[in-house]
C-alpha cells in the first residue's frame, strides 16, 4: 500500500511517524483540558470537535475506552471517516481549526487500563535469561514451546511516556548474604516490549482468529524490572514487586488497521502447537524497534535494535490462551508481549541480557559504561513499520530514572 | 463487648450472623433493581432509603466503592448512624419499611474489584504443598519467612457467592507424557481464604499501621485452583490460567470496625522480620472457618475446620509489602490471604492437602470419596467470630461445579 496523501502537508513526509495511513489515537492537553486526539503529521486532531459521524458519548471522557467498547464496526467507520476528513480538501475549512500543534500538546494516558498481563514470548530472551539462571542445557523451561507463558501484572503501574520512574525500594538478598536487607534496587532494568490492547470483551474461550478480531491496537511498552528484587521474590509464585514500580507505554495507540500491511508469520515451530494455538494466517507484525539510553544531560546511545517479528507467539495467540480457563477479558485489558530480543548480541531487549547479568558492562557513546540503569538515565523505546514511501510510528516511549525515595524511619 | 440490641428482633438471637454489632455491607436485588444493603438479623436494610446522613452520591451506583473512597471518617459516621437507626425505637417507624427479608433478596457483587492480588501467607499450607512438591527438607522456599509472597490474580475472575463455576479447560501434561494435551482439568480444587478490601488508595510506600488504616473490610474467598493446569504452567512465572476460572467471595463485606474485638497476634517469628514488616499491634483476627462439600443432590460434609489466626502474615503486612516498590493501590483492590490451613490434618484448606495430592482420598458422610472436585459438587465456605452472646458472620461463600464446556472444533 502506498502513502495516502493528506491536505496536512507534514503528514506527507516520508519521515513523519504519522502519515494518513497511521491515524493513531491518543489523549492530549494543550492547556485547555484533556481531550481525545488523532495524530496527523505534526499535529493532533481534536477529534470530538469535527464531524466524526459517531455518537458524542464516545468522546465524553478523555480516554479511548468508549470507542473500543463500541466494537469493530465503529472502529472501521471512524477510521474511514477520519481518512476522508483529512484527505478531501472539501473538509479542510471545517477541520483545520481543530488541529493543535504536537509541540503545544502534552500527551496523557490514551486509555484506562482494565487489567495488565505480561507474557514471556520472546525465545531469544527466554534462552538468554534461562542460560544465565539455569545453564544452557536447561535454558528453556519444558513448557515454553507449548504455552505462551504469562503472568498477571499490575494495571495501576501503567503510565504514559514521559512519566518519571522512581527507582524502587525492596527486599534484596546478596548471593553471599544469609538474610535479606531492605533498600534501593541496584539492578534496575528495562524490557523492550510491545503491548496489545483488548478492544472487545469476551466471556469464555475464544479462538486465535476471534482473539485477533478483539484487538484494538498496539503500543510500545517498557516493563521496568528490578532484577535483584525479582531474584529473591520470584519463587514459587512469579514476579511481583519487581515489576510493579512502573510500566511505561507510548502515547499513541496504533490501530490494528494501520498495521495490516505489515503482518508476517511467527517463526516455524520446533514442536507442533496444540490445535487451539495454531494461527489461521500471519498474526505478528514487522516492526523495527530500538532502545536508546541517555545519561543525565548527555547524548543518547542506541543500545539495542530488534524487531517485533522475532516473537514466538503473537498477541492473538496469547489472548486466546488467556481465555482457555474461562477467564473473562474486558475492554482496556493490556497484554505485554514479553521482551523482544533478536538473535544478535546488539538486538537484546534488556540490560540483563546486554550486559550478560552485569558481567559485560555496555560502553555508551559518551564513554560511560552501564550494567544496569543509573539515576538520571533516560530510556527511550522507538518503533516503526516501513511502507511504500511512508512509515507508521508510535511516538517515543520514554522515562527518566529518579533516585529512590528515602527509606522511612519505620523501615530502618 | 456484649451484644448490642436492636429493635429488629431477629438481630438479637445468639445464632444470627448479623447482629447490630456486625452491620455488613452488600448489594441486593429483590426484583426491584440492584441496591446497596446492610444485613441486620433476617433482613437487608435498603440503606439509600433511610436518613443515613451522607451524600446521596455515595449510594448512586449498586456497589460500595464510593463509600470506600469517601474515607475512614465517613466509614465511622455511617456505622454510628446505622447503629442508632437500628437500635433506637424513635427511628423504627421511618426505617422499618425499608427492611427487605433476606429470603426475598438475591445477593450480588458487593463492590467493583479494581485489582486482585493473592498471597501465600499460610505456613501450614506452604509446608504441606512444599513437602508434596519438593520434599520435606525444601518445603518452605528460602524467602518465605521474610516476604509475604504474593502474585497478581485476575480481577475479572471474581464472582459473588452462588455463581456456578464451570470446570476449566486447559493444557495438561501427565507426568509420564512427553507432550501436553488440551482438555478439562481433572484436579480442580478449592482454596479456603480470607479477602481484605482496600478502601483508601495509596501512591508510594505505606507502613503496616497505615496499611491497616486503608483496609475497609473483609470477605471469605474461595480461590478455585486447577492443580493440573498449574503444575504444567507455573514455572517460571507463577500461576496464571490455573487461577483464572473463578474466585468466589462471600456476599457481605464485614467491616474492620465489626472485627475490632477479635484482633489477635500473628504467630511468633522464627526469623526476625525486617523492620518495615513489623506489626505495631495485633493485626490478625480470630475467625473460625469451615469448608463443606455437598455432592449433587446430597447432604454436605464439613471437610475442614480452620481459623484465620493461623496466618503467618496479616493483610496489613501484605498490603504494606505490596506498596514497597512504589506500586499504587486503589479503592476496591482485593487481597487474598492465601490458603488458611491449620496444623491438624482436618484443618487443611484445600483438597490438594486434604487428599495429600490425591493419594489419600477423603471419605464424605455420604460414603463417597473425593480427591478433587467432581461436577455437581457444591462447595461452601463459612466463617464467624464469636463475641459475648453474639457472633459475626459473613454469609455463605458457595459455588457449584458445572461440567467443562465442550472443546470447540478448532481446538480439537
Note down, in words, how this protein is organized.
2 copies of one chain form a homodimer. Helices cover 16% and strands 27% of the residues of chain A. With 412 residues, chain A is α+β, with helices and mostly antiparallel strands. The termini of chain A are far apart. The first copy, chain A, has 2 domains: 9-108, SH3 type barrels, CATH 2.30.30.230; 116-411, Fumarylacetoacetase-like, C-terminal domain (Fumarylacetoacetate hydrolase, domain 2, Alpha-Beta Complex). In chain A, a hairpin with a 6-residue loop joins strand 20 (288-294) and strand 21 (301-307). Chain A is globular, with a radius of gyration of 21 Å. Chains A and B meet through strand 7, strand 10 and helix 6 of A and strand 7, strand 10 and helix 6 of B. Chains A, B: It comes from Actibacterium lipolyticum. Chains A, B: Residues 117-399 form the Fumarylacetoacetase-like C-terminal domain. Chains A, B: Pathway: Amino-acid degradation; L-phenylalanine degradation; acetoacetate and fumarate from L-phenylalanine: step 6/6.
In a few lines, what is going on in this structure?
Chains A, B: Keywords: Calcium, Hydrolase, Magnesium, Metal-binding, Phenylalanine catabolism, Tyrosine catabolism. Two copies of one chain form a homodimer. With 412 residues, chain A is an alpha+beta fold.
Q: In terms of topology, how is this protein built?
A:
2 copies of one chain form a homodimer.
Chain A: E1 25-29, E2 34-40, E3 43-46, H1 65-69, H2 72-87, H3 92-95, E4 99-101, E5 106-108, E6 116-119, H4 123-134, E7 150-152, E8 158-160, E9 165-166, E10 169-172, E11 181-184, E12 188-189, E13 192-198, H5 208-214, E14 215-223, E15 225-226, H6 227-233, E16 247-249, E17 254-255, H7 256-259, E18 263-264, E19 284-285, E20 288-294, E21 301-307, H8 315-322, E22 334-336, H9 351-354, E23 362-363, E24 369-370, E25 378-386, E26 391-393, E27 397-402
Helix pairs in contact in A: 5-8
Amino acid at each position: 500500500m502506498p502513502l495516502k496523501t493528506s491536505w496536512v502537508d507534514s503528514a506527507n513526509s516520508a519521515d513523519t511517524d504519522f502519515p494518513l495511513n497511521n491515524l493513531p489515537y491518543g489523549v492530549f492537553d494543550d492547556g485547555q483540558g484533556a481531550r481525545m486526539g488523532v495524530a496527523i503529521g505534526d499535529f493532533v486532531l481534536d477529534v470530538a470537535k469535527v464531524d466524526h459521524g459517531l455518537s458524542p458519548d464516545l468522546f465524553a471522557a478523555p480516554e479511548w475506552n468508549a470507542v473500543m467498547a463500541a466494537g469493530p464496526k465503529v472502529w472501521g467507520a471512524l477510521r474511514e471517516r477520519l481518512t476522508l476528513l483529512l484527505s478531501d480538501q472539501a473538509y479542510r475549512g471545517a477541520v483545520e481549526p481543530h488541529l493543535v500543534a504536537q509541540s503545544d500538546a502534552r500527551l496523557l494516558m490514551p486509555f484506562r487500563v482494565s487489567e495488565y498481563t505480561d507474557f514471556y514470548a520472546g525465545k531469544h530472551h527466554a534462552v538468554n535469561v534461562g542460560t544465565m539462571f539455569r545453564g544452557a542445557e536447561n535454558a528453556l523451561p519444558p513448557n515454553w514451546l507449548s504455552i505462551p507463558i504469562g503472568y498477571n501484572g499490575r494495571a495501576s503501574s501503567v503510565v504514559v511516556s514521559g512519566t518519571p520512574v522512581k527507582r524502587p525500594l525492596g527486599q534484596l538478598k546478596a548471593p553471599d548474604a544469609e538474610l535479606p536487607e531492605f533498600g534501593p534496587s541496584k539492578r534496575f532494568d528495562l524490557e523492550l516490549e510491545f503491548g496489545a490492547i483488548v478492544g472487545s470483551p469476551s466471556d469464555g474461550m475464544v479462538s486465535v482468529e476471534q482473539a485477533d478480531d478483539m484487538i484494538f491496537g498496539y503500543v510500545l511498552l517498557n516493563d521496568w524490572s528490578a532484577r535483584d528484587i525479582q531474584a529473591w521474590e520470584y519463587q514459587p509464585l512469579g514476579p511481583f514487586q519487581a515489576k510493579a514500580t512502573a510500566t511505561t507505554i507510548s502515547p499513541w495507540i496504533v490501530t490494528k488497521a494501520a498495521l495490516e500491511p505489515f503482518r508476517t508469520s511467527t517463526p516455524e515451530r520446533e514442536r507442533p502447537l496444540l490445535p487451539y494455538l495454531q494461527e489461521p494466517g500471519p498474526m505478528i507484525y514487522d516492526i523495527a524497534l530500538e532502545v536508546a539510553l541517555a545519561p543525565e544531560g548527555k547524548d543518547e546511545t542506541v543500545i539495542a535494535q530488534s524487531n517485533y517479528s522475532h516473537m514466538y507467539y503473537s498477541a492473538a495467540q496469547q489472548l486466546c490462551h488467556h481465555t482457555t480457563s474461562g477467564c473473562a477479558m474486558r475492554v482496556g485489558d493490556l497484554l505485554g508481549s514479553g521482551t523482544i530480543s533478536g538473535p544478535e548480541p546488539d538486538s537484546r531487549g534488556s540490560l540483563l541480557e546486554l550486559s550478560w547479568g552485569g558481567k559485560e558492562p555496555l560502553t555508551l557513546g559518551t564513554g560511560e559504561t552501564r550494567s544496569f540503569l543509573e539515576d538520571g538515565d533516560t530510556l527511550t523505546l522507538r518503533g516503526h513499520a516501513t511502507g511504500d514511501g511512508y512509515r507508521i510510528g508510535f511516538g517515543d516511549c520514554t522515562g527518566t530514572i529518579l533516585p529512590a525515595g528515602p527509606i522511612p524511619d519505620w523501615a530502618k
